[in-house]
Design brief:
The protein has 18 helices and eleven strands. The protein is an alpha/beta fold. The chain folds into two domains: about 5-350, ABC transporter transmembrane region fold (Up-down Bundle), CATH 1.20.1560; about 360-575, P-loop containing nucleotide triphosphate hydrolases (Rossmann fold, 3-Layer(aba) Sandwich), CATH 3.40.50. Strands 8-9-10-6-11 form a five-stranded parallel beta sheet, with helices on both faces. The longest helix has about 55 residues, at about 250-300. The two termini are about 65 Å apart.
Length: about 575
């Protein structure tokens, strides 16, 4: 094994330990350690039962050899008791193992989800191409990581205990061997079965790691390709109407085929590697059945041991051999574990804002006073190109301001920076205390009922507010939706204009002190737009309204208008 491979293994183990140790030191550590202890005790009990079955082999086959029917029948009864014990122990060990897995996965999922949502990191991830499919890493990689860690760790420990338990048995039963070497004489090998098991398993393990090493890289890529393909299918489902209106079925099909091509090509490579690995491991497993019998048969034919001794030695050799072959038998799982660990560790590095990769956030947003104040604000695009320079203005509490200008001028970015979402820039923003609500051009509606969507993001729809919901829907012109308040399929037949009307109904229910409207009426006709803005201007709670739009119909609904081009960098301003 070369130095690069050893460093890689240390890297995977270190990454895995970073992920593992947080749970085992968490507030659930006592119950987790208790479950782990119970699982270990059950697995060790299973090893003890295996040792008893090994001793049973000797007694049973000796009884068969001397035709002692009564003793053979008694041994069969003993075997039934041992087998029932092994089955019961295995069932409860599996049950407690799965219990620990789901508790561990639940804790890790909550931790990652809360961190992913905190400080709007889920939003910033879209600017960092190195982190693919974060949803898949939370939904699938955590589950696979926990399952592989538990399976491999418990399997490794059980194999070690089995190894030492049966190695002592094999050591006592093996005896010496005389190996003739022609003119060099005869070599005396004590406990030769022990050395044979160690040597064969060692060589086979080394060959297995050499043959199966490419599986780590291939399994890592497989998770990404599968996630990309699944996302493309979900993306079509979420944008079904737009694709249908464009007639984009052929284009979507090409996208699916291109992404699925990556899945297929990667799977073919995995198949080839697994074929080579399976050919070796399965052939090795078949030889492992015959080799102990061949090695011990000389002692049997020389009458040094009876049939029972032969079977006991062969059984002990098989257990020792199987324990030493743990890496061989579990190599596919090890390769998958390494790939999942690498994906999860890279996700965690970016999730916890590794300074080497995270964008520098220098826009200070404070909640104080009653107005909206922007001072010395410079905004950039994600690629570093300047977008706006020297932005400064004040919006008094209860008043309204319209930022206008051509498409792509930076209006939406400015709104996002004021709300604390846009991370690329520097400056100071002050927003008064109180509830804020941002309404984008394409309003978002969460999964669930219409009632829960109306309360989003400040409620869960649990309270009975049908009267308030109905009044808000009627005021924005959506009285027909009142009957669908508790329907979960309500959004499938709404137009973009109706989604924008629904966003205003949400405003009436939330009553925010500060309202940011990013082209929030772009799909509405002039009459309905005027009606909705009039509702805001006459609202009893008098919100501070900050709008961004290029529409010429909006200035009359605001107290002041600010042209975005006044903040363009000098070269762009000169061109305009």
């Amino acid at each position: 094994m070369n130095m690069r491979t050893r460093e890689s293994k240390r890297h995977h183990l270190a990454d895995a330990w970073k992920i593992v140790q947080v749970y085992w030191r968490s507030d659930e550590r006592w119950s987790a350690w208790g479950l782990l202890l119970a699982i270990l005790l059950l697995n060790l009990s299973n090893v003890y039962v295996s040792v008893c079955i090994n001793a049973w082999n000797k007694n049973f086959y000796n009884a068969l050899q001397i035709f002692a029917a009564g003793e053979a029948l008694r041994q069969l009864v003993i075997f039934c008791i041992l087998a029932a014990s092994a089955a019961t122990i295995s069932a409860y060990a599996l049950y407690l193992n799965q219990m620990l897995q789901i508790r561990w996965r639940r804790w890790l999922t909550r931790r990652y989800v809360s961190t992913w949502l905190a400080d709007r990191k889920y939003y910033r991830f879209q600017f960092r191409t190195a982190t693919d499919n974060p949803d898949q890493r939370i939904a699938e990689d955590i589950q696979q990581f926990v399952a592989y860690v538990m399976t491999l760790a418990i399997g490794m420990l059980t194999s070690l205990v089995s190894l030492f338990s049966f190695l002592s048995i094999l050591w006592g039963l093996s005896g010496p061997a005389e190996i003739p070497l022609g003119t060099w004489g005869v070599v005396h090998v004590p406990v030769y079965l022990v050395w044979a098991a160690l040597l064969s398993a060692g060589i086979a393990t080394w060959l297995t790691t050499r043959i199966g090493r490419p599986l780590v890289r291939l399994n890592f890529a497989r998770q990404r390709f599968e996630g990309d393909f699944r996302f493309s299918l979900a993306h079509l489902r979420e944008n079904a109407e737009s694709v249908a209106l464009y007639g984009g079925e052929a284009a979507e099909s090409r996208i699916f085929q291109d992404r699925f091509k990556n899945v297929v090509e990667n799977f073919w490579e995995i198949m080839k590697q697994q074929r080579r690995l399976s050919w070796f491991t399965m052939g090795y497993a078949q030889l492992a059945v015959v080799v102990p019998l061949l090695l011990v048969s000389p002692r049997y034919f020389s009458h040094e041991i009876g049939l029972g001794g032969l079977m006991q030695v062969a059984n002990a050799f098989a257990y020792v051999h199987n324990s030493l072959s743990f890496i061989i038998n579990a190599y596919n799982d090890i390769a998958n574990w390494q790939a999942v660990t690498e994906r999860l560790s890279t996700f965690e590095e970016r999730l916890y804002d590794n300074p080497a990769t995270a964008p520098r956030r220098q826009i200070a947003v404070q909640r104080e006073g009653a107005d909206i104040k922007v001072e010395k604000l410079d905004l950039d695009l994600p690629n570093g190109r300047p977008l706006l320079r020297g932005v400064a203005f004040t919006v008094a509490a209860g008043s309204s301001l319209l930022i206008t200008g051509p498409s792509g001028a930076g209006k939406s970015v400015l709104l996002r920076a004021i709300c604390g979402v846009w991370p690329f820039g520097v400056g100071q923003v002050s927003i008064g205390r109180g509830r804020s609500l941002f309404v984008p051009q394409l309003p978002y509606s969460p999964l669930g009922t219409l009632a829960s969507a109306l309360l989003y993001p400040f409620g869960d729809g649990a309270k009975d507010s049908s009267g308030e919901f109905a009044a808000a829907l009627e005021e924005v012109g959506l009285a027909a939706l009142v009957e669908e308040l508790y329907d979960e399929n309500w959004s499938q037949h709404l137009s973009q204009a109706e989604h924008q009307q629904l966003a205003f109904a949400r405003i009436l229910i939330a009553k925010p002190a500060f309202l940011f409207l990013d082209d929030a009426t772009s799909a509405l006709d002039d009459r309905l737009e005027a009606r909705l803005y009039s509702i805001l201007r006459t609202a009893s709670w008098r919100p501070t309204v900050f709008s961004a739009s290029y529409k010429s119909t909006l200035p009359k609904f605001h107290d002041a208008v600010l042209e975005i081009s006044t903040f363009w960098p000098a070269p762009e301003r000169a061109v305009v």
